[in-house]
Write a structure and sequence with these properties.
Length: about 325
């Protein structure tokens, strides 16, 4: 595995904030590769006709974990990468629990703020669940923009196929806030690494890179608030699974089958129940395909969108 192509601090320096219901929400709009200078990239020429792509990250990380794929994606799309409420650089000044419904409402407001009337979605983990709520809004005709398509990575879209790890169960428990404060950083990072594939597991300094993004600006206590989505998935299962079954937008799941949380077993369940979507399996890849196998993820993503990866043309 390669170290991150852009540091967490550099990612932050290129972002912006906007206020939503008392929350200071961090986001980036990426229209040129981070690896290219302004002088070498004709922004005006490349931004006028590109469709919008909304990237929705997973638990417990933030928008930075898309940085392995954004340089390619922004050649074809105007890429919108927020940190969900209480995650990453998005400040939760009131320390309140933010529900999936809150997350979806925040993203709807952000897309409206940025002036887009349609978006494609690329989501991972809890981001998949937020996308499901956005689909539910669209089907009830109360979404401000149109979802044109969705690409999902590993996540618990079907709650009965979700297999939470011991750390997730501890965080979701009655004393989750205390566990989050007291458990050693090394144990947290070890549990995080365990959901990667055997040959793609982060170690050493590379694994340490993830600690600031896992903790976020809201600190360890926020982990126990963020994990509440696991209960919401059961509460809203009919609504959110129904949202996938009822949409006419093209969808695909790219699944790392070695993921113990939502790997091969979840891909099989998704393929059986959500028959209006396609499934791609990445063998020996774990819970974070966009980090573990970015080239393969991009290949399948671009093929789904009928884009030519070799020439960067539609």
């Amino acid at each position: 595995m390669r170290s991150a192509p852009i540091s967490y601090d550099e990612w932050k320096s290129r972002g912006s904030y906007y206020l939503w219901n008392g929350h200071k929400v961090f986001y980036r709009v990426i229209e040129r590769p981070d690896s290219e200078t302004q002088e070498s990239f004709d922004l005006e020429k490349n931004s006028n006709t590109k469709p919008a792509l909304l990237l929705i990250h997973g638990f417990p990380t933030a928008g930075w974990d898309w940085c392995w794929v954004t340089d390619t994606l922004c050649k074809h799309f105007t890429v919108i990468v927020p940190d969900l409420l209480d995650y990453g650089f998005s400040e939760n000044q009131h320390k309140k629990i933010c529900t999936i419904l809150d997350q979806a409402a925040m993203l709807e407001a952000l897309v409206r703020e940025l002036g887009h009337d349609s978006v494609h979605i690329f989501a991972h983990d809890v981001g998949d669940t937020v996308a499901q709520e956005l689909f539910a809004h669209q089907q009830s005709r109360d979404l401000d923009f149109r979802i044109l398509s969705a690409v999902f990575l590993n996540g618990g879209m079907l709650p009965d196929f979700h297999r939470p790890r011991p750390a997730q169960k501890a965080l979701a428990g009655r004393l989750g806030w205390l566990w989050a404060r007291l458990v050693k950083k090394e144990k947290m990072l070890g549990g995080f690494a365990d959901v990667f594939g055997t040959d793609t597991r982060p170690e050493g300094a590379f694994l340490e890179e993830f600690w600031p993004i896992i903790k976020g600006v809201n600190g360890r206590a926020s982990l126990a608030r963020r994990i509440r989505y696991m209960m919401e998935r059961k509460q809203y299962a009919d609504r959110w699974v129904g949202a996938l079954k009822g949409t006419t937008a093209p969808m695909i799941l790219i699944n790392g089958t070695a993921d113990p949380v939502s790997g091969a077993h979840a891909a099989d369940g998704f393929e059986k129940r959500i028959q209006n979507a396609s499934v791609i399996r990445l063998h020996d890849i774990g819970h974070y395909p966009q980090i573990e196998a970015p080239e393969a993820v991009l290949e399948h993503f671009l093929h789904f969108h009928k884009l030519d990866a070799a020439t960067d043309k539609a």
